User: What shape does this take?
Amino acid sequence: MTSDDLTALTIKEASRLLRLGSISSADLVTAHVERIERLDKHVKAYLRFTPELWEKQAGEADRRIRQGDAPSLAGIPVAVKDVLCVRGVETTAGSQILRGFRPPYTGTAVARLFEAGAVMLGVTNCDEFAMGSSTENSGYFPTRNPWDLQRVPGGSSGGSAAAVAAGEAMIALGTDTGGSIRQPAALCGVVGMKPTYGRVSRYGLIAFASSLDQIGPFARSVDDAAIVLSLMSGLDPLDATSSDRPGMEVLSNFGAGVKGMRLGVPREYYDVQGIEPGVKAAIDAALFVLRQAGAEIVDVSLPHTDYGLAAYYIIAPAECSSNLARFDGVKYGLSEVDATNITEEYLQTRRKGFGTEVRRRVMLGTYALSSGYYDAYYLKAQKVRTLIKRDFDDAFKKCDAIVAATSPTVAFPIGSKTQDPLSMYLCDVLTLGGNLAGLPGISVPCGTSDGLPVGLQVLAPQWGENVALRVARAYEEASDVKAEVADVV
Amino acid sequence: MEVHVQPKTRSKMFCGCAVAPLNAPPNTYVCEVCLGLPGVLPVPNKAAVEACIKTALALNCEIPRHTKFDRKNYMYPDLPKGYQISQYDLPMSVNGYLEVGARKVRIRRVHLEEDTGKLMHAGDKLHKAWESYVDLNRAGVPLMEIVSEPDLRSADEARDYAMELRTLLRTIGASEADMEKGQLRAEPNISIRRVGSEELGVKSELKNINSFRALHRAILFEVDRQQQVLESGGAVVQETRGWSETEQRTFSQRSKELAEDYRYFPEPDIPPLELDRAWIDELQRVLPELPSVRRARLLDQLPAAQVAAIGSDRNLADLYEAAVAKGAPALPTANWIVNEVAPSGKLMSGEYLAELMDLLEQRAVTRDQAREVHVESVETGRSPAEIVAEHGYAQVSDESELRVLAQAVIDANPKAAADYRGGKKQAMQALMADLRKRAPQANPKVANELLLKLLA
Assistant: This one.
């Protein structure tokens, strides 16, 4: 097997070879590191690497595989988004303000993957504090789309999506607050899943918007995404919003297909403003495949979709303005100690440490929560959120799952939206409803438009991960469209 | 009046850290959660919720079905997250009251929140200090905030209210409520108005009060200050003022004109709580007898002064009632508790106290001896009767009493007396034996000396 063959494997394939003894975890790591050395100067998916971890973890995985008690992810190389705390590993949320911060603890989701034998390759780039849809808001550098280096990978988890698409990691972790896993998965042609709010513990996730954030996997197959998600999910005593509700028994009816299922197409999503014809064509083709596979495609409506974006851009900044207050230069990260008093120190540290988009959202959120404006903004937005949840409840009375495009566009050229925040915000118009309603959603590759990947999004009712995964897997099987590793150069 | 009370819990409000003992080295009782490191989440402490509910029940509060935590946003170096988790519009409990003497003080709310850290400045205030140090041992320690309606009319009433709260909190076991340890912090809001006026004046809020005495004095000072301001044609400014123990005066800390906008909003990291009614009912059921009820009952047995002294401390009242139940006399027992037990802080069982009271009653011990027996009994756990017997406290050593006895023994045993005088020293044994038979409590050494003296 060539080195590049090893970086194109799925978890299932790699695990089989590892257990057969055909390859070792060290071989897998070496193959990935070689590919990273060759390609990442172009893609720039990673912010930093963790050789001390991968050596230790690969060694441990190989030892356990030899002993015959290998856990389910033994030896599988994973990349971790820069918002997930890993003990001793510099974790900065893509921001200069956290430069040099090494958490003294590992978050629950990552810890669970480590326990399952995963091998961490490094930390992936993202928009600063996960605020953005292109990874151009990173405090370090933009990441490029492996399918076209002049284009963005999407965001905010662009580094993770690009790493998996470029064969620089077998799987990766991202976070999704308004579409930050699904949208880059779509733009990079990989599978990305945001679970139900509460499915995966947020302990160790540097918060952007606490009521919307969820951790989820990137992979090159629906099976792999399901495996990773199932290992991370479940109740965590360190997260009061986590739950062990059922709905993750993915393997039981996972391969059952979509025959007899009703799949709803919301007309507000299907005809969303600004949707590219090529994207629409790919979705039409995907609907055709699903219908051929036995699904009934039904028309549904999410009437408050238009208000979703506005509500999202009140609630998320409001929470972010509070969550980011702790970055004051006193305890960790950047500190402007030349200031003559504490207020100056706060101001200087935050002015220097935060990028434009983060400052904009902190100001928006502070304003929305201010006395005299709270009712008109925050409270109103929460009411809209309730209406959007109700929209989905009503839609799910008519269908088992919702299918739509993940992103109205394919990957756009770097720099094309950075001057117009509103156009950037519109990237999430089809995904943020799932966050506001707390629903599980998955994006799977469904062909291309002008040679660039298009993603099909499947949304299921709360705690219905098995439903979303089942539809996504059925599509993957029926369509013959598989996530592929990009050649890059 | 706003009173912050630290409930009796082993761990902090939102993490597993132990509550730091006083004078623990700085930043030794901290973890990533109470340090507010990136990525951490708060998980509410059930014991703190329980203490808050018990307090609310004891204060006759309503406990709404739904409650939630909120974030109070402000930046300060003693607040590691940049916000304090508190409760805003759906507190744990509302609309209660506490009877303080004849005054029924309405309680607006009792809610839960977390404490902040502590700053130490090299210099005066934060903005002028050369260096400031942050100790986060206290950060995240649970606090209950008990807010009264403006029903208190004097420094006396305010102090009595705070003391009554302390009694109540200790009685129900919700807090140790030690003011000097910062477990109970009273912040009176003070305004004055003309007699007959319905409208409350502009208020100031007092902080840094560390004892009931200071509370009383600070209020007297503040009332006087406001009166002077108004009488000299000025206007009281709404502000926070600190009490200086050394200068015995209040000074302006923070004007409310520059009041911060705390931007309260629901804490998204903690789902709203729906308290289990059965659990609340159970807490209500096991709530001990409240001090006011007990005092009313004790007034049937004791004068008001003793009731006031004993009724303000659950342990003393328990001791009193246990001793009386074992047959101890009411008033002497109450007086003994007030004068001897309370100052010593050493409590024995009711049974032993009843025994000790009996020994006193029979004059088997003097008061001084009883005091020693009390201390020894508490220290060794042995019964007062046992201790008295061992020490011979019960023996009569009084020479004038024993002289009469010795003379009686000599008169009753002329032969033995004659034998002794005749040189038969063993005859003394017979005399002593008779003496002991007649008066077992007689001190043998003193009695022997007296016999020798009388026979000489």
In short: Residues 3-247 of chain A form a domain with the Amidase signature (AS) enzymes fold (CATH 3.90.1300.10). Chain A has a mean pLDDT of 95.
